[in-house]
């Protein structure tokens, strides 16, 4: 199955440790969404926003990888699954159930996300824009 990562799961080493079967395919942009950070975990989330994009990574994952991600993402309490189509192929990602106010991420978490942006060759201007809300 195809999975879209946009937060800490962009970090290749961490993602591989969590999902042993995962394969990074390429970087893609999710249109009409924007990146945010929220909840008591100060974690990444995405929300609909016209004319905005969220850069991320497309991974191929196995059923067992998906089960591990469900646990990591605290599905279905913290995150729910969101599906979209990319060139006719169904892609799964996670979005937060409760849209609480912006909370600046911890330094440790932010460093993992920044490393993930490097690993995937993403433009971090969207990350910086999301962080400038606070």
Question: What does this protein look like?
Answer:
This protein has one domain: Hypothetical upf0131 protein ytfp, CATH 3.10.490. It is built from 4 helices and 5 strands, in the order βαββαββαα. It has helices at residues 12-18, 63-72, 107-120, 125-131; strands at 2-5, 23-38, 43-60, 79-86, 89-96. The protein has a 5-stranded mixed β-sheet with strand order 2-3-1-5-4. A hairpin with a 4-residue loop joins strand 2 and strand 3 (43-60).
A few lines on this structure:
The protein has helices at about 10-20, 65-70, 105-120, 125-130; strands spanning about 1-5, 25-40, 45-60, 80-85, 90-95.
Which strand order does the major sheet show?
Answer: 2-3-1-5-4
Q: What is the number of beta strands? A: 5
* Mean pLDDT value: 97
Helix content: 25-40%
Profile the largest sheet: 5 strands, mixed
The name of the CATH superfamily reads Gamma-glutamyl cyclotransferase-like
CATH class: Alpha Beta
Strand content: 35-45%
The CATH architecture would be Roll
Which structural class is indicated by helix and strand composition? alpha+beta
Termini gap: 35 Å
Q: Which consecutive residue ranges, at least 5 long each, have pLDDT under 50? A: none
What string, H for helix and E for strand, traces the elements in order? EHEEHEEHH
Which overall shape is indicated by the principal axes computed on the Cα atoms? globular
Give structural attributes.
134 residues, alpha+beta, Hypothetical upf0131 protein ytfp, five-stranded mixed β-sheet, 40% strand, globular
Secondary structure blueprint with pairings:
Elements: E1 2-5, H1 12-18, E2 23-38, E3 43-60, H2 63-72, E4 79-86, E5 89-96, H3 107-120, H4 125-131
Parallel strand pairs: 1-5
Antiparallel strand pairs: 1-3, 2-3, 4-5
């Amino acid at each position: 199955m195809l999975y879209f990562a946009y937060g800490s799961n962009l970090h290749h080493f961490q993602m591989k440790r969590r999902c042993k079967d995962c394969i990074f395919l390429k970087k893609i942009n999710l249109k009409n969404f924007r990146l945010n950070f929220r909840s008591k975990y100060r974690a990444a989330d995405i929300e609909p926003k016209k004319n905005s994009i969220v850069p991320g990574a497309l991974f191929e994952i196995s059923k067992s990888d998906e089960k591990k991600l469900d646990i990591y993402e605290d599905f279905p309490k913290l995150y729910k699954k969101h599906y979209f189509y990319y060139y006719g192929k169904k892609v799964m990602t996670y979005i937060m159930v409760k849209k609480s106010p912006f909370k600046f991420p911890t330094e440790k978490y932010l460093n993992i996300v920044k490393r993930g942006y490097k690993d995937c060759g993403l433009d971090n201007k969207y990350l910086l824009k999301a962080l400038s809300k606070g």
